[in-house]
Design a protein that fits this description.
The longest helix is centred in the C-terminal third of the chain and has 19 residues, at about 175-194. This protein is globular. Strands 2-1-3-4-5 form a 5-stranded parallel beta sheet, with helices on both faces. Helices cover about 45% and strands about 15% of the residues. The protein has one domain: 3-Layer(aba) Sandwich (Rossmann fold). It has 8 helices and 5 strands; from the N terminus they run βααβααβαβαβαα. By secondary structure, the protein is α/β, with parallel strands linked by helices.
Length: about 190
């Protein structure tokens, strides 16, 4: 059975939704012949991700690896903020190490969804997130990875009305948001498996 490793922060983990509504669970239903491994950790940035890369990704010799970071990296908090330069460098190291261990692995770089700035809680803003989205897009080209521009996808399918895709905090995905994410990534995985 081939492994699909989902590497990321709380957006990958499934923070705030029932397990049955999470990214990993929905993908497992879509691809029952694949082993879906949820390597999302709440609160992680790319710095913490590097520390657990061997255990949570490389040890599984993934056939496909999705990478979804940026929401925490760009947040203004002292504990989580990583500069765009560090973010890009960390992602580059992650990609290189996956390729070194599993040269045939398909790497999918996912952009984080937009945040709803009209609620009182978001840790970040879309303006702060923008350069991190650009870094992900640039890396997809320079490192020859598959770009899954989920940020753009949500903006387009929502018609700018993103509230239903997010939880009350304006940052984490709702059940509807995870439906959109799994459907979007599922199409890409389906193409790779053909």
């Amino acid at each position: 059975m081939k492994n699909i490793v989902l590497f990321g922060d709380s957006l990958t983990f499934g923070y705030g939704v029932y397990k049955k509504d999470s990214f990993a669970y929905l993908l497992q239903n879509m691809f029952p012949k694949m082993s879906i491994i949820n390597s999302g950790v709440n609160g992680d940035t790319t710095r913490e991700a590097l520390l657990r890369l061997e255990r949570d990704v490389l040890s599984f010799s993934p056939y496909i690896a999705t990478i979804l970071f940026g929401s925490n990296d760009c947040a203004p908090g002292e504990w989580s903020h990583r500069t765009v330069e560090e973010f890009e460098s960390n992602l580059e190291i992650i990609i290189d190490k996956i390729r070194e261990k599993s040269p045939e692995c398909f790497i999918i770089l996912i952009t984080p969804p937009p945040v709803d700035e009209t609620v009182f809680m978001p840790w970040t803003t879309n303006k702060r997130l923008a350069p991190y989205l650009n870094a992900i897009q640039d890396l997809s080209v320079s490192k020859n990875c598959i770009l899954a521009d989920f940020n753009r996808h949500v903006s387009e399918i929502s018609g700018g009305n993103i509230e239903s895709f997010l939880q009350e905090d304006g940052c984490h995905l709702s059940e509807h948001g995870y439906d959109a994410l799994s459907g979007f990534i599922g199409k890409i995985i389906n193409e790779l498996l053909k």
